[in-house]
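Chapter summary example.
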Amino acid sequence: MKRSSKLFTVVLIVALMAAILSSSIAVPLLWRGFYYLHIDALDLPEHTGYAVEEIRGAFDEMMDYCVFGEPFGTGVLKWSQSGYEHFADCAKLFRLDFTVALISAVILLILLILCKRGVHPVRLVGKGAMFWAGSVLSVGFIVIAGLAAMNFDRAFVIFHTLFFPGKTNWIFDYRTDEIINILPQVFFRNCALLIVGVLFAACIGLIIADRIVDE
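The structure predicted for these 215 residues follows.
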């Protein structure tokens, strides 16, 4: 016997939004090739004086710590206790994102099982859960991306103020934390663009899928 549930719909919308957002953020965290592309594109060896192997080694060791919990290090580059503490905070945020992605995937799997057992989402104002998840998330990020595009430097500061409250150790001294020399702000801007691009593509896919289902 089929049953429709508004609660099912709300949970599905939230789970889809969480899955898309967390997965989009995970892309630049897991795709190291994206950073490698910047080494030549930004001519980092010329600007920093480090060899390509030293740059990649420093980045990989730092990311191994943040993503996989490996011992912290930045290759041959110097680092300070303050810099280490900032990366420790970053590691917590990275793992939080991965946790959200995993939990949302489990919830979606449970909802799929319930759907096969006869529980179905209701359509809200004639639209399904996929439409609302894609629309709400994309509109929200259009606003955020628009504000950030107006002044990325300001947005960069606001981001760190929100996610690292009361701390200033994200402001690196290039003499004591040399890894900042190979992490120019343009790289972080491009990471943000990549996240937004993946997110919008996923949102458009959901909206199209909802339309196909509706037909």
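To summarize the output: Helices lie at 6-30, 32-41, 44-48, 52-68, 81-116, 129-150, 152-163, 185-214.
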